[in-house]
């Protein structure tokens, strides 16, 4: 045992010497920008050299970045996968180069399960369920036509947030998803798609609630509702995901109703897992799950807004 310990000591890297390459998706949302910013501060805290490659929403750029990190011989690779499929080949290359990969905030297809060390993500099916349960409880059996703004097509979080919400709808005959379309996780597309939903649904009069897979799309949808002369949060209920400061501003103004929190600090637990793995040989659990807490107007939205400022927002 002492020989193993000596070997580990000899080959171990301290956090100060570690270089981590992070293939980030882009900057589609306020949450994403906060995740990038928190990753930098969490790296600085641990004296880790962090190299971030912004893929501008393109998987091909993420694959190129991973290959470049492998060529540079980084100690670990963090990957926020824009979509779930198409990673096996490049992750095999990382595995062959003995570079551990950590998934941040989104999952990949099950075929890639053996190709990464751990994933720091929420339970995104559960997020959809939390949003759906809030709506079911709030409307209390009243008939409610829902329009849905989906995230990026093919992203695990978009598939799963839909799945979780649909499961609640299936149990509540009064809830019906009448329209569902992608808004690609951006404010601009959320607004654009909501405008088309309003036009198609009797000027918005037949819409009871909007479910958006993230707060940024909801902020865009709120703008669309206001421009159409509707009162978001009153005429039309809202529930979305992320808990970014801007949604708390809207909740405080009575223009939004509920959000499910997703922490932007995915990198902190990922760095801890990598340091323990490199320094002590500790294998982390395959899934490091983050919390999914529901916030509504009863949670003092102004106070939550103020408290979010130091968290990368
Ligand atoms: O993968 C996490 C999601 O990606 C966030 O909910 C969304 O805002 C972001 O773009």
From TrEMBL:
Cellular component GO terms held in the UniProt record: cell envelope
This protein's UniProt keywords: Signal
Compartments it resides in: Cell envelope
NCBIfam families in the record: YtfQ_transport
Signal peptide limits: 1-15
Family, similarity comment: Belongs to the bacterial solute-binding protein 2 family.
Protein name per UniProt: ABC transporter periplasmic-binding protein YtfQ
Subcellular location, principal: other
Keyword Signal included in the entry's annotation: yes
Record domain Periplasmic binding protein: where: 21-266
Database matches in CDD domains: PBP1_galactofuranose_YtfQ-like (cd06309)
Molecular function GO labels: carbohydrate binding
Keyword Cytoplasm: no
